[in-house]
# Entry
Amino acid sequence: MVKIDYLYTDGGNVAISQGVIRVGNDKYFQSYDTIIATKEDGIISLDEKDWDCSKTTLKYLYQFLRNFCYVEVYSKRDLMKLIEEGEINLQNLNED
# Structure
């Protein structure tokens, strides 16, 4: 079954351009029309080109990682450390 959840703005409103697609235990964070991050089979991956495309995308990426992947990320420094330690992978998630 496929389920779509939306992330929330700081004011508590639905951010309709920021969604999480859930298929079974796998999760996909989509910002506008781009997949930014996934958690498949317990492995978290970020799109190597688009994960750091804007401050807004990063804000919602952190929310996705905390709320759907249970990873405590609050800053780019936190995220870079997890990438460097191999806890989060970088790969092309938007192959054409």
